[in-house]
Write the structure tokens for this entry.
Amino acid sequence: MINNFIFHNPTKIYFGDEVKANLSLELANYGKNVVLVYGCGSVVKNGIFDEVNEVLKKLDKNIAYIDNVMPNPTLKKLEEGVKIARAFKADFILALGGGSVCDYSKALAASINYDGDFWQEYFINQSEPKCDVVPLGCVLTMCGTGSEMNGGSVITNEQTHQKIGKVFQDRRVFPKFSIINPKYTLTLSKYQMVNGIYDAFNHICEQYFSDDFDNVSDYVAEGLMRSIIVASKKAIKNPNDYEARSNIAWASTLALNTLIHCAKSGDWMVHMIGQAIGGVTNATHGESLSAISLAYYEYILPYNVSKFKRFAINVWGVSDDEDDLKVALNGLKAMREWMCELGLSINLKGILDESLIDEVVKNTFILNGGYKELDANEIAFVLKNSL
Ligand code: NZQ
Ligand code: ZN
């Protein structure tokens, strides 16, 4: 662990099905005015909304509702929510949903008491909040993003087609608590389930494929990836397999709660390109990542064959061989087979038209933590190879 780091994750996790009791316990610590934020109806249909609402009512909370928070939440929706929460004098924000609802709630929490332009301040300037932040908690219904235990918030500006993530370092923006009940995820469609699984898997890859020194984070990352592979193969055959779904849920949280980022720089270019695709097309987050991953990793593999060889052997169980390149490529082959077994999109067909590539390239933030810093031409090359 040759790099310095700070590890401080303040989010308390309640894992399992005792949702009502744990939620009551936590909410008793906060003020009367609770804003309940949720998505476009899944929680109403499957009854989770009623369970949570009942807890709030029993505690005699005043409740304001912000509903219809869409996947890839927009700036316009955030502006509407800020108005509602300000008028209501919110004491607490309760996010009920997946990554989109959690991300939205964090942006809301940091914006309610901010007088200026919060898009410019947090997403363009990437500043930290200088105002009071309203505390928030999450009841998670979809796993993958890790938003339930991190400071990340991704918002899409529909006007400019920019989808930008702000990873808040300020611990006040992290959820005070998150309730992860794997049973709540059982009503997800297979499409959402596998895209969430791939999102979590890719979060681990993004952190794993950076730096060269020996460090604990990479060993933990390999274990998490192996757990996701085993559990996902079970879940795709039987989506009601609680053991598999609960392992997917916890591995997803650990994949992006900063644990395996300790002492690592992180690549994050699949996410940067995927986010740019999302801004232009509104594609599902996990799908925008899976569609470009194989082309991306094939492109960067030559810049660190030994790490891709390690990935092949330790994660995919590929046999060792004197030919390092062959072993490394076999790792990506195994990954491709797994992605196909899950039914993930492995190219951009139906997601991005070739005519939009220039716009995606223009909107991609280029980071330099991975094994190869890409330029605009290389990003375009990866996208073309993903078509
Ligand atoms: O809106 P509703 O009706 O609730 O339906 C949602 C939505 O259509 C549905 N869903 C959620 N729970 C369900 C369910 N359907 C049936 N049963 C349930 N239990 O699933 C759909 C997708 O939900 P969403 O929250 O959009 O998915 P996800 O959790 O993948 O979140 C995606 C957002 O998170 C951002 C992404 O960019 C995207 O905007 N990310 C956030 C990160 C972070 N905070 O660290 C990191 C990620 O890399 C990612 O960028
Ligand atoms: Zn992601």
Remarks:
- The chain has two domains: 12-184, 190-385.
- The domain at 190-385 is CATH 1.20.1090.10 (Dehydroquinate synthase-like, alpha domain).
- The pocket of zinc ion (ligand 2) is lined by residues 145, 199, 203, 271, 285 (CB under 6 Å).
